[in-house]
Write a structure and sequence with these properties.
By secondary structure, the chain is mostly helical. It is 79% helix and 0% strand.
Length: 335
């Protein structure tokens, strides 16, 4: 091989390949095809030079060019930050909107149970006596008692992190246990409703219901909504085991399971927001109306996110599942 003639003959191709690689993702369809073709030819040229005339300078030039071209050809078509942005602007709100009937029903039933338990505790002294001694009840409900000091028991940042971790675990349990026909999810919901109802009833019996609501509502609106979403998603997953619809049961569980995993990621962010409110706003010196307003604004923003962005995403065909291009091929099922 005459190396000088070889380099002169193919230098224009190598320079063109270098320009296409430098342009990265700003290529047209035709230019992408050209990039692939030139990359393949440059790889052949590198092999020929190495076997016939291994000049160190030419080999180094072609090795670098081929490596960069290979990276441009095989690298992901989209940056990770764009995938994350798409998830939080379309995928997550679509999954929330698509499962809205499940978690809204879950929220309604849980609130009803909590209110009934609260009424039962507040209206029946014997129930309160069975829960604790009079002195213990007084210590919990008095001004500056356990219900109030709980939210300032630790530094705000530490308390917010602790609350976020605990609530994320509850949401994860609801999502994970959904596949067991949803029965563990029902147990978790009843336990949380009972705990909320007991606090509600004890503070109401002590004539301090307004204080209790002022402490719980600022963060509780968003926090409980996230738990309701997780529980509703888990129940939907459990129902898929019973009735997968026109899909094969394994395919239906895979689809709903992937959506549930995405839901867990999104709810972690929602619970982080509620944890920050609980750590910094709830125990603050702000007046009750201001703390309630912050909680109401956070809840309103979440609902607007679901019913505006989510409904639009669903209408555009997004289900909260992976994109079709990211899924493995599967055999079609009869409708």
């Amino acid at each position: 091989m005459d190396l000088d003639v070889f380099v002169t003959t193919h230098s224009a191709e190598w320079e063109r390949l270098d320009r296409l690689v430098r342009r990265g993702r700003r290529l047209t369809g035709a230019e992408v095809d050209e990039l692939v073709e030139l990359y393949q030819r440059a790889a052949v040229h590198l092999s020929q030079v190495r076997s016939s005339a291994p000049d160190p300078v030419v080999v180094a030039r072609l090795t670098t060019l081929v490596a960069r071209a290979r990276s441009a050809v095989t690298s992901p078509g989209r940056p990770a930050w764009r995938d994350a942005a798409d998830f939080f602007t379309t995928g997550f709100p679509a999954a929330l909107y698509r499962t809205r009937r499940w978690w809204l029903s879950t929220a309604l039933l849980t609130v009803v149970v909590a209110v009934l338990v609260g009424w039962w505790v507040a209206a029946h002294p014997e129930v309160r006596s069975a829960l604790a001694t009079p002195s213990e009840l007084h210590e919990m409900t008095r001004p500056g008692g356990q219900y109030e000091t709980y939210y300032s028991s630790s530094p705000a940042a530490s308390f917010a992190a602790q609350v976020w971790t605990n609530n994320a675990q509850v949401a994860a349990l609801c999502l994970a246990f959904g596949a067991f026909l949803g029965l563990p999810v029902v147990a978790i919901l009843l336990l949380n409703a009972a705990n909320l109802g007991v606090g509600l009833g004890l503070m109401a019996a002590a004539g301090r219901l307004d204080v209790f609501l002022g402490l719980v509502a600022p963060h509780g609106l968003l926090e409980l909504t996230a738990v309701f979403v997780a529980a509703g998603t888990g129940l939907r997953l459990g129902w898929t085991v019973i009735d997968p619809g026109p899909r094969r049961r394994t395919a239906a569980l895979a689809q709903e399971g992937r959506a549930a995993m995405g839901m867990a990621l999104g709810l972690a962010v929602v619970l982080l927001v509620s944890g920050v409110i609980e750590g910094f706003v709830t125990p603050s010196d702000l007046p009750t109306w201001a703390r309630l307003a912050i909680g109401a604004l956070a809840e309103a923003a979440f609902l607007l996110y679901v019913f505006a962005l989510g409904r639009r995403a669903v209408r555009l065909g997004n289900t909260g599942d992976l994109d079709a291009g990211d899924l493995a091929a599967a055999r079609p099922t009869a409708a």
